[in-house]
Design brief:
Elements lengths: L1 E13 L2 E12 L3 E5 L6 H8 L5 E7 L7 E4 L11 H11 L4 H14 L15 H14 L4 E5 L7 H16 L3 E6 L2 H7 L2 E6 L2 E6 L1 H8 L6 H12 L1
Organism: Desulfitobacterium hafniense (Desulfitobacterium frappieri)
GO molecular function, one term: ATP hydrolysis activity
Protein name: ABC transporter ATP-binding protein
């Protein structure tokens, strides 16, 4: 089942300065779709378009189920200066109309998983970048939406944090959620994504599972990195 269908003819922050062209894809239940490309390729702009945050867009973003909820986990943590970690979680639960019992259970489980339980009454603005990234992951996964939109989740995460994130990804996929994740960490993406959308200068240069990407790049046994470089060379 499609959780979101994206058809962007063009898009940008100004109508006269378009960044995206001919972007079409879907994210299905149980999928982890990797939005792959270098810095400045348009990955974050695509995510903003999916969420309706791009000032100009010619196209359509369709959520087939009108009741589909999504969680957005940004690359840069967004935190309140005067709220403790626990108060951040309480605020998110209140916005999501989560019962107190469900909130406490999920919050404590995630805090323990990411080894932040002892820090729950501290101010996250004083945390390291990696710890702040874990806070954003906890906030997103606590809500258990049907769709996760994740922007560069690996930046700042230590190996334990990355393992915990990947464990949660597997769990929510098994529960039927879909994930759209942007990253330029091709080695990790190759291991965990079910399909890929390769972006260059705001345009899709290839998409599909790894086998399809290999066929399109004419590298039958190539890594995702090698395939991406080959496709870029074909564009030039």
């Amino acid at each position: 089942m499609n959780l979101v269908q994206v058809n962007i003819k063009s898009g940008g922050y100004l109508k006269k300065d378009l960044i995206l062209n001919d972007i079409s894809f879907a994210v299905k239940s149980g999928e982890l779709v990797g939005l792959i490309g270098p810095n400045g390729a348009g990955k974050s702009t695509i995510l903003k378009t999916v969420m309706g945050q791009l000032p100009y867009m010619d196209g359509k973003i369709d959520f087939p189920n009108a009741h589909t909820h999504y969680a957005y986990i940004p690359e840069q943590p967004v935190l309140y200066d005067n709220l403790t970690l626990w108060e951040h979680l309480e605020f998110a639960a209140a916005v999501g109309k989560m019962s107190r019992e469900t909130f406490v259970s999920r919050a404590e489980e995630l805090l323990k998983l990411f080894r932040l339980y002892k820090e729950k009454h501290r101010l996250p603005v004083t945390f390291s970048k990696g710890m702040q990234q874990k806070v954003m992951l906890i906030l997103g996964f606590m809500m258990r939406p049907a769709l996760y939109i994740v922007d560069e989740p690996f930046i700042g995460l230590d190996p334990h944090g990355m393992r915990d994130f990947l464990q949660l990804v597997d769990q929510v996929r098994q529960d039927g959620a879909g994930i759209l994740m942007s990253t330029h960490s091709l080695d990790t993406a190759e291991k965990i994504c079910t399909s890929f959308i390769l972006i260059h200068e705001g345009t899709i240069i290839s998409q599909g599972n790894l086998e399809a990407i290999r066929q399109q790049s004419r590298l039958p046994e190539g890594s995702l990195f090698d395939c991406f470089i080959s496709l870029l060379e074909m564009q030039s």
